[in-house]
Design brief:
Length: about 325
Amino acid sequence: MITTRLTELLGTEVPVVQAGMSWVSSAAALPLAVSNAGGLGVVAAGPMRLPDLERTLDEMTAGTDRPWAVNLPLYRGGIEDVLDLLERRPPPVLVASQGGPRRYLDRFRALGTRCLHVVAGAEHARKAADAGVDGLVVVGAEAGGHPPPALVTTMVLVRAVATAVPDVPLVASGGIADGAGLAAVLALGADGAQLGTRFLLSTEASVHAEYQATVLAAGIDDTRTVGHGLGVIRAVRNDFTDRMTALEQAGESVDARRSPFGTATLRAAALHGDVHGGKVEAGQSAGLIDDVSPAAELVERIVTEYRETVDRLPR
């Protein structure tokens, strides 16, 4: 066990959180494996239809007696129906993003659900803390998917938030692929680490083989941030990111870029294997990863690497 404020809050054995990734963890296999290994597995509810989500909630409840979470972007369509379903079937932990915490906080805390809110800066962290969230997930620029619009790095952002809200447990996310990364963010003041790309490259990830192969082959400088003004994303460089980069460098307006940005989808890449025209969302940490392994083995490896890293530090 590695005991931090996060493990004490959530009841996990180790402060390792598997990021909620649309399509990748929009099923029970990956989050079950992570939770049963002592970390926090997270179901990505963002793209899920209600019947699929309800079935996955059943599978999570039946598959583990350990803590697990649902990640919910508050901007998704049909959000009230999803919130109603989760209220009827409350998960142990709710990780919410892309909206204010007052929308859900009272109703879920009354049910005993621990509520973590995703933030991209110290100001948002203070507001979420003032609203009464149980903890914060702080996402830095290195992260895949949706990094902070200002692209402040994890190292700087985590330290800023830890200083701004020292009494709130923090989960650091972005650029973390191993136990050395976990040790680094704990040193910055975080209480745990969220890993996305590392668990994307696990055997339980519900993602197309071509998507995994593309991320596995990527180096640390092979991702791009595109969609500025439209909801910036980080993705592996391909035809889509090249097209968007060219439009942005040419000074095209947000309206002119909206259609090509929206036409390409994560679904096309993650479910159907369109790794050229789709959004192959992944973090810079892809370049630190050279294998696809079972999620439970990854959790154990991260813990071992963490201990080895701490042991190497000068006393």
